[in-house]
Amino acid sequence: MPIWKITDEGPSKVPETKLEQEKLLEEKLEDWIAKDPSLLGESLMIIDRQVRIVDVGDRLDILALDPQGNAVIVELKRGELTDPVDMQALRYTGYISEWEFEDFENQARKYLGKSADPDFNFNEEYEKFCAGEGIDEPPDLNPDQRLIIVGSEVRENLAMSPCGCGTTA
């Protein structure tokens, strides 16, 4: 679907481009989303970037929470989404499904540069995020996990994947 820019002369179609064409790395896309998660079309509280899963040596791009307390794993690809990105993201989801409150707190503390701050209260940060979304009583953390996979195109066989995982292009 095209994107339009409204000018004094009327609407004009914005030319399509890709990160590769602009010589931008996946890291730049990650920077943009970390700065403004609404680029993904929803409100998210970013917990950390490049989250290392110690036991297996994997690293997921962005870890966030949604207002319902669900962990949101964001996997970014600067080009076409191909196999096995869906399985990769599902693997990350499995890792995060085991996390407790303290795991999220430790990641957020590191991400927000509060590692040495004894006054940092992750629960307060989470409550503020929820309040900003109109939720008076913050839900429990990590009752479920969600995936957001970002890329420029989705191959039909991936979009119709039997795993039932959703993709966002």
Q: How many E strands?
A: 8
Share of helix, binned: 25-40%
**Strand percentage, roughly?**
15-25%
Strand/helix succession: EEHEEEEHHHEEH
* Form type: globular
- End-to-end separation in angstroms reads 11 Å
For the biggest β-sheet, the strand order reads 3-4-5-7
Briefly note the structural class of the backbone: alpha/beta
Largest sheet: 4 strands, mixed
What is the average per-residue confidence, as pLDDT, rounded to a whole number?
82
- Rounded to the nearest angstrom, the radius of gyration is 18 Å
How would you portray this structure in words?
The protein is an alpha/beta fold. 28% of the residues lie in helices and 24% in strands. It has 5 helices and 8 strands, in the order ββαββββαααββα. Strands 3-4-5-7 form a 4-stranded mixed sheet, with helices on both faces. Strands 1-2 form a two-stranded antiparallel sheet. It is globular, with a radius of gyration of 18 Å.
Task: Give the SSE layout.
Elements (H helix, E strand, L loop, with lengths): L3 E4 L2 E4 L12 H10 L9 E9 L4 E8 L5 E6 L3 E2 L3 H12 L4 H11 L10 H11 L12 E6 L2 E2 L1 H4 L10
Parallel strand pairs: 5-7, 6-8
Antiparallel strand pairs: 1-2, 3-4, 4-5
